[in-house]
Write a structure and sequence with these properties.
The protein is α/β, with parallel strands linked by helices. The chain is built from nine helices and six strands, in the order ααβαααβααβαββαβ. α9 links the parallel β5 and β6. The structure holds zinc ion (ZN) (2 copies).
């Protein structure tokens, strides 16, 4: 009976206040995802197929990277390219109070790559950490919110297993060639994670330097495998992102 009353309440609430898309504000159209309309889901998740090792766009069905498989992590899934709609949504998700946008992007990311994540046998979702000082000044961490969203969508636990031990200049403020040095040795494990199969989560990646350094800390702490999931990948021909 309690279930029926709750269901009736949900139906009445939906009739009075139809669920809105977190990305565009339109009705969600009764699509598969509760917080994203069908149109946004189609636009945001559109984009070419990417290599599941390095994240580069496939050419003729093959990875264009000569050194793929990537030495930096075990696999990488991407929601889409950092441009147009996705860039706008990522920037909105960075603002305080925009948790719904981050949750919607995380839900889309997890939904698009559900089969791959299952194949990877992930057991823990881990956000790329923000330095505590920057977190205090901004009041939010998009990576945290995305990781929680993916955790909810997949049913996997979310843990902060890495900490950032020094504040670094924003990656997008630096030339490409300086970005790896900028984050070198900037992360430490919070605790041992022996045997864990981890999914690192961030909003944007460009060179992959931040993900690679986080992976290094997790492997030092005993992780068996470290994969990564990012909302947007800024390819070398695209505009530089805000904070990879
Ligand atoms: Zn929408
Ligand atoms: Zn590749």
């Amino acid at each position: 009976m309690a279930w029926s009353i709750r269901s009736l309440g949900t139906i009445l609430l939906d009739l009075a206040c139809p669920p809105r898309c977190a990305l565009c504000g339109a009705d969600t159209d009764g699509g598969d995802l509760p917080t994203v309309c069908v149109a946004c889901a189609a636009v945001v998740a559109a984009g070419p197929a990417r290599c599941l090792r390095c994240g580069d766009v496939m050419i003729d069905g093959r990875c264009p990277m000569r050194r793929c498989p990537s030495p930096h992590w075990d696999g990488l899934v991407v929601l889409g390219p950092y441009g147009d709609d996705l860039r706008r949504h990522v920037l909105r998700a960075k603002r305080p109070g925009a948790e719904a946008v981050a949750t919607a992007l995380a839900t889309l990311l997890a939904s698009r790559h559900r089969d791959t994540l299952a194949t990877w046998q992930i057991d823990t979702v881990v956000p790329v950490p923000m330095h505590w000082w920057r977190r205090c000044s901004r009041g939010t961490s998009t990576a945290d919110q995305l990781a929680v969203g993916i955790s909810r969508a997949t049913g996997l636990p979310c843990r902060r297993l890495v900490r950032r031990v020094r504040a670094t200049p924003m990656q997008n403020e630096l030339p490409w060639e300086d970005r790896r040095r900028n984050v070198h040795d900037a992360f430490r494990p919070r605790r041992r994670c022996a045997g864990r199969r981890i999914l690192l989560v961030d909003d944007v990646t460009t060179t992959g330097a931040t993900l690679a350094e986080c992976r290094r800390a997790l492997v030092e702490a005993g992780a068996a495998a470290v994969y990564a999931a990012v909302v947007a990948k800024a390819d070398r021909t695209a505009e530089s992102p805000p904070a990879p």
